[in-house]
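In response to a reviewer's request, we include the raw inputs and outputs for one of the modeled complexes. The two entities were modeled together in a single run.
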Amino acid sequence: SRAVESQSEGQCAPVDSLWRRYSEFELLRNYLSVTYPHIVVPPLPEKRADFVWHKLSADNMDPDFVERRRIGLENFLLRVASHPVLCQDKIFYSFLTQEGGWKEMVNETGFQLKADSRLKALNATFRVKNPDKRFTELKHYSDELQSVISHLLRVRARVADRLYGVYKVHGNYGRVFSEWSAIEKEMGDGLQSAGHHMDVYAASIDDILEEEEHYADQLKEYLFYAEALRAVCRKHELMQYDLEMAAQDLTSKKQQCEELATGTVRTFSLKGMTSKLFGQETPEQREAKIKILEEQIQEGEEQLKSKNLEGRDFVKSAWADIERFKEQKNHDLKEALISYAVMQISMCKKGIQVWTNAKECFSKM
Amino acid sequence: DTSLAEVNSFSPSMPISPSSMINQYKFEDGPELRDLFITVDDPESHITAIETFITYRVVTKTSRGEFDSSEYEVRRRYQDFLWLKSKLEEAHPTLIIPPLPEKFIMRGMVERFSDEFIETRRKALHKFLNRIADHPTLTFNEDFKIFLTAQAWELSSHKKQGPGLLSRMGQTVRAVASSVRGAVKNRPGMFTEMNNYMETFNQKINLLDKIAHRIYKEERDYFNEMKEYGPIHTLWSASEEDIADSLKGIASCIDRCCKATEKRMAGLSENLLPILHEYVLYSEILMGVLKRRDQIQGELDSKVDALANKKTEKELFLEEIGKLEDKVERANNALKADWDRWKQNMQCDMRSTFTNVAENNLRFYEE
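The model returned the following structure tokens for the whole complex.
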């Protein structure tokens, strides 16, 4: 374990510095994603409030939202710190320990260049001829996970909204019962105290739904994790494509070389036709060409070898991290589901208590 | 009301208070006391050239001497119930006549001849007749007896006799007019109290009615969203291995919550909503009763005033006044007795209905 001096992650900082802080987190994450493409990098919490139900404000400055985001950022750092590979990264370490100049340090690593090209490639569409089945399946899974969690979160928000309505309208009972009890003699006491319980009932929903927000945040983390998972798959696809292109290029160069050497034209080419029509090259020119090609082929073969190696390494370490991630995901989600069930049970217990009390009051009317 | 241990031999389960010796009958009286049993059931649709309407079967069983037979079965339509109600109001202007279900309820978007509407109406008509049967005075009303026993053609011809619609309308108009003229001068304090009470009660019961409907609506909306919530978890479990069972478990729990919500909603619509609605109607009826009492008193007062001015024809006047005074007193007593009785019943009804709501909610949360 390491002594982690947590930076003040926008606790009592004024608005301006909070935003800068968030952007520094973003910078850190981008750096990690680019530097460790085979790792499922933990996600950041949402920048803007999403999946809100009506009572929660969608305002990013709302203190509840800010607090929940702060917790999310802390959680992000904990995830990175507990990752066997990521925790050893120097930039991460200095993020936690170095006040000034951290940004410059990150930029000096030059990861931006890699980032730009990778980013372009990730967004491009291309077809891989021999996709790795496992990665294809994983990509499908991550798409499904993303879609199902976001659907779930949306419906949960709507359910929360409705539940809020049911509870709050009961509060009106409290008020009217109290007013009514004023004109009643025998029924008055019962009505009045029942009304009080209705108020308690109506007020209880606020805490209940606040707790549920934590559950929603846990699910959201995995919604964003699904994106990270998908990114790894895409990077692999990219590598594979790269590899295939390199191999293709090598093959065509070899072919060209052969054609030049033997003088046979196997494939039709305009150049070939024109040279036939307008005169062939001199043997010296041909020799020169062959030599260049042979050099290129040599380079190409070495590159291909290293690319293959790179690819195999990537697959090996990616798959190791994916297994780790799967276990973490199953564990975390199971716990989240259990805690959700516990929350529901506690909500029902509160309900039972309130209505038992109310029933007693009613029967005394 | 837990104050009294003394128990009346007539109503072994209900304690009575000294001020309401007159009120010996309650809606929930044991079968040994009742001698008139009425049920309303079997709605049937009738189609004629002019109209389509529903009749209900009214079955009466009785041991009373004044009835020729001990069992009767007749068919009545809503119009007939309206007729009965207006006859009762005419004969007993200061008694509290139970409410009838309304002609056609716009709220809830129920079709005029939908099963739901017909069933709701049937239940309300059943309650209406039984409340009359349980009323110490109304139960012996002649028109009531005819309603329960006469065949269709007999009822028609009987209806044609007696003061028509216009005279009844006139009575109501006079009653309203006299109350518009300002509070009756010599209204006994008791009735002013009742008026004040009714005004507030009317307000509160209407509010409660609205609140209860709103809660029903919110619960229904909640139910609709929950219906979608469960299946998402099942869908998700299809992509998972390790956590598939947990997800399926949650999905099935959510579905059970849905069913429990349905039950809770049914409880509301079968119990609380109809009762609140009845008491909304009751509060209007009671306002009317109070106005009619005021009107009768007004007649007396104006005659007394006239007497003060006309020194001659004293005797004639005195006789009239005497009669009116009697009338007023009887009206007052009737109202008072009825009022107490009504309040007791209302308390009982409210108590049981809200307790029922609480129980339903308990059941909901337990499930």
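As requested, we also summarize the result in words. Strands of chain B lie at 36-47, 52-62, 71-77. Helices of chain B lie at 78-91, 115-134, 142-149, 152-160, 165-180, 189-237, 244-309, 314-366.
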